[in-house]
Hints:
The protein is of the alpha+beta class. Helices cover 42% and strands 39% of the residues.
Amino acid sequence: MLIIALFVIIVLALLGLTMTRLLSSTSETIIYEVLGQRALNAARSGIECALADEFGAGCGDPTFKEFSSVVGLEDCSYQVVPVSKSIEDGAKTFTYWTYSSTGQCSAGKINVTRFVYVDAMLEVE
C-alpha cells in the first residue's frame, strides 16, 4: 500500500510540475505575441509617416520616433530608412523608393523587433 501511495504522490507531483511549466511558457508566449504586434504597429506607423512626408502630407518624425506618450506603444520606437533612385523607361522618368522600417518594443528583459518593407514609384513630370 505504501508503494502505491508513493507512486501516486510522484505522479501527481510530476503532473503539477508539468502544468506549472506549461502555464509559464504560455504566459511568455502571450507576452511575445503582444510585444510583436506592438512592434509591427510601430514599424507600420513609421512607414506611413515616411510616405506621408515624402508625398506631401507631412509628418513630424519621418525617420525615427520613440513612443512614450502613445497609449499601447509605450517603450516602442521605429526607424525608417528610405532609399530612392531614378529609373528611365524610354521618354518617361520614374522615381523609385524603397522604405524599410524597423519597429522595436521592449518590456523588462524582453525585446521584440519587427520589419516592414514598402516600395513606391512615381512618374516624374
